[in-house]
């Protein structure tokens, strides 16, 4: 196996500008998904480490320059961060691919997206204006936008660095110091942030990172009274736990949770494009993609042809070592997750017709590899129709009418994304608007426009980020009302005086 250059063997916290171990000295092992052997130990944070990190961030908030800086000045730092992320693309992609099992070509794309997030939010804060409301001659009301305070950022292991950037960029742009708690399966790439921020000139204490187990470090961050907001991306059940804990402190929450998104393919669609796109939608990023179109609903007239062509292409997908540029599907992140995905594959074999994959590829006897797996005739009450698998597994289901397609699309607890394939203009818009999801793509896979709302409905999330919504989340609007003339005020207690 090829090891990335400068692979960290000890991964520490980063608090108040220093790389530090846990106060308790506790660590946890970090495995790579190809050998499933530990390659590093990471500091395991507890409440005491979170206290230290929050205290540093709190001081940066109450006394530091960052929240008070002009937007343009903050933007200059964020541009330097973006340039540094891009300059580190190769190293970052190697680390990310080694730690997560993502194919190296797809890991490189994540670095570019991370850099773009910093540029986008830097541009946005410089261009943003605050609202003023005029009641001519009477009142002028203007808004002051202020960073909320220390932001707690909790992130998952799929595309870790990019998802961290998706929270770090708007939080920092808005002026909030942060405490980041990255996923414990994949802490390697997050260890690059400290150097990037230092070199870019981010003031000390503004960026803090505590590694650790979710129920320990993550929970302590959620419960910390000096952290008024939490941005979380992860599983729906974890999100529910976090919401319960956060309720005690009435924290603001942004919750990006799981998905089981439908891709609806009508008989009038461009079939070649739909096949390319629905394959990419579920098998890119090893299928470990929150917006994966993992339920493919296909109109009956083309169903058998679609199943045959889809399964043939899926069988030809190159599964291999993450560092190999030819690899299209790499190794799943961790043996625990691999076992869980295999459990769904076994359930699928009982519930539906297996068309491709179904287990470990013969040429890869070790590591968390799964051949791209396709099931057909998946009934709406099947486990593999209802539950998020988060691996390279597609479920194909036939439908007859538009209404049936919409009903099937909406027949799950999730509502993150949806994809519609048709060349009929009316049908396309009608169906796209009827899917219960935060985001729908018509004749496309998941291509983001950073200005648009991002988030899910139902069990897929609470609150939307994206564009100005992210800045809204990390800032409070403070309204000042100014009287422009005499104000009529009922004169309480002045009755005696007036009767005289
Ligand atoms: P997870 O919920 O297990 O963990 C996410 C993070 O939460 C980790 O850092 C973990 O340590 C932490 N955590 C766990 N328990 C916690 C607790 N009690 N208190 C505080 N923090 C805690 O999720 P995962 O397995 O890392 O990620 C996969 C999931 O993330 C999938 O469900 C996927 O759909 C979802 N996801 C959603 C989006 C989105 O934008 N909607 C994006 C990516 C991933």
What does this structure look like?
The chain is of the alpha/beta class and 500 residues long. It has two domains: 10-257 and 456-480, 3-Layer(aba) Sandwich (Aldehyde Dehydrogenase, Chain A, domain 1); 262-442, Aldehyde Dehydrogenase, Chain A, domain 2. The protein is built from 16 helices and 23 strands. The chain has helices at residues 47-62, 71-87, 89-100, 104-127, 160-173, 193-200, 214-223, 236-247, 271-283, 300-315, 335-351, 383-386, 402-410, 425-434, 468-474, 495-499; strands spanning 10-11, 13-15, 18-20, 27-31, 38-43, 132-135, 139-147, 151-154, 178-181, 207-209, 229-233, 252-256, 262-265, 295-299, 353-356, 373-376, 393-399, 414-415, 417-421, 439-442, 457-458, 461-462, 475-483. The strands form six sheets. A seven-stranded mixed β-sheet has the order 15-16-17-14-13-19-20, with helices on both faces. Strands 10-9-8-11-12-22 form a six-stranded mixed β-sheet, sandwiched between helices. It has a three-stranded mixed β-sheet with strand order 1-5-4, with no helix packed on it. The longest helix has 24 residues, at 104-127. The protein is globular, with a radius of gyration of 25 Å. The structure holds nicotinamide-adenine-dinucleotide.
């Amino acid at each position: 196996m090829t090891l990335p250059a400068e692979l960290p063997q000890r991964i520490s916290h980063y608090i108040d500008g220093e790389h530090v171990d846990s106060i308790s000295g506790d660590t946890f092992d970090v495995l790579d998904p190809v050998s499933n052997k530990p390659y590093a130990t990471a500091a395991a944070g507890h409440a005491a480490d979170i206290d230290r990190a929050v205290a540093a961030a709190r001081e940066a908030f109450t006394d530091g320059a960052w929240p008070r800086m002009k937007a343009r000045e903050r933007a200059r730092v964020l541009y330097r961060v973006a340039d540094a992320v891009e300059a580190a693309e190769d190293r970052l992609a190697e680390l990310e691919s080694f730690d997560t099992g993502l194919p190296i070509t797809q890991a490189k794309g994540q670095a570019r997206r991370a850099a773009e997030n910093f540029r986008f939010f830097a541009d946005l804060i410089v261009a943003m204006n605050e609202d003023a409301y005029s009641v001519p001659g009477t009142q002028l009301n203007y808004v002051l936008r202020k960073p909320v305070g220390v932001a707690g950022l909790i992130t998952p292991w799929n595309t870790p660095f990019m998802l961290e950037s998706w929270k770090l960029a708007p939080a920092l742009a808005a002026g909030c110091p942060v405490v980041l708690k990255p996923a414990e399966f994949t802490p390697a790439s997050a260890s690059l942030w400290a150097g990037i921020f230092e070199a870019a000139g981010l003031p000390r204490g503004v960026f803090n990172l505590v590694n650790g187990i979710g129920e320990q470090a993550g929970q302590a961050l959620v419960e910390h009274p000096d952290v008024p907001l939490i941005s979380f991306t992860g599983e729906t059940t974890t999100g529910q736990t976090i919401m319960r804990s956060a309720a005690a402190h009435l924290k603001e929450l942004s919750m990006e949770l799981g998905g089981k998104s439908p891709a609806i393919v009508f008989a009038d669609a461009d079939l070649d494009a739909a096949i390319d796109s629905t394959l990419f939608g579920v098998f890119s990023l090893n299928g470990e993609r929150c917006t994966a179109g993992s339920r493919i609903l296909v109109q009956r007239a083309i169903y058998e042809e679609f199943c045959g062509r889809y399964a043939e292409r899926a069988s030809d997908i190159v599964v291999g070592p993450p560092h190999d540029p030819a690899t299209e599907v790499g190794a799943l992140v961790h043996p625990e997750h691999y076992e869980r995905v295999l459990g769904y594959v076994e359930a699928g074999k009982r519930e539906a017709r297996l068309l491709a994959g179904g287990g470990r590829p013969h040429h890869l006897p070790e590591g968390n590899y799964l051949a791209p797996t396709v099931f057909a005739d998946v009934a709406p009450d099947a486990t593999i129709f209802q539950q998020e698998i988060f691996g390279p597994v597609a479920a194909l289901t036939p439908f007859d009418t538009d209404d049936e397609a919409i009903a099937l699309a909406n027949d799950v607890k999730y509502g993150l994304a949806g994809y519609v394939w048709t060349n009929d203009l009316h049908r396309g818009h009608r169906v796209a608007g009827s899917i219960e999801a935060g985001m729908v793509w018509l004749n496309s896979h998941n291509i983001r426009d950073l200005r648009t709302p991002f988030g899910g409905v139902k069990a897929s999330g609470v609150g939307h980020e994206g564009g100005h919504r992210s800045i809204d989340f990390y800032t409070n609007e403070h309204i000042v009302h100014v009287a422009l003339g005499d104000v009529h005020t009922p004169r309480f207690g002045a009755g005696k005086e007036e009767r005289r």
